[in-house]
Amino acid sequence: MEKTESIAIEEAKKLEIPIVCIVDSNTNPLVCDYPVPANDDSIRTIQLLITEISNVIVSANDAKSKKDDSKKKEEKEG
């Protein structure tokens, strides 16, 4: 593990931030809270994972907005 990676992991642990790692054959999955098996040297793999993570975040935000709007509408009517 490179120095910058180990520093990032140490900081995340101190701040109790869950650690998600892309792990392949040369990575220690034991330092990760959520290991994702994939090729961490492939730009296409990284793009795919980032796209999927982004899509989930956008969907969750949309669902939250709809829920909040529904709640506000109920409060106005009630």
Care to describe what's here?
There is one protein chain. With 78 residues, the protein is mainly α. The protein has one domain: Glucose-6-phosphate isomerase like protein, domain 1 (Rossmann fold, 3-Layer(aba) Sandwich), CATH 3.40.50.10490. Helices cover 60% and strands 10% of the residues. It has helices at 3-14, 43-77; strands at residues 20-23, 34-37. Strands 1-2 form a two-stranded parallel sheet. The longest helix has 35 residues, at 43-77. The chain is elongated. The relative contact order is 0.09. The model has no long low-confidence stretch (mean pLDDT 88).
Mean pLDDT: 88
Name the beta content range: 5-15%
How would a textbook summarize the main sheet?
A: 2 strands, parallel
Q: If you compute it from the alpha carbons, what radius of gyration comes out, rounded to the nearest whole angstrom?
A: 18 Å
| Succession of helices and strands | HEEH
Explain briefly what this protein structure is.
The protein is 60% helix and 10% strand. It has helices at residues 3-14, 43-77, and strands at residues 20-23, 34-37.
Using brief descriptors, characterize the structure shown.
mainly alpha, Rossmann fold, 78 residues, 2 strands
Secondary-structure blueprint:
Layout: H1 3-14, E1 20-23, E2 34-37, H2 43-77
Parallel strand pairs: 1-2
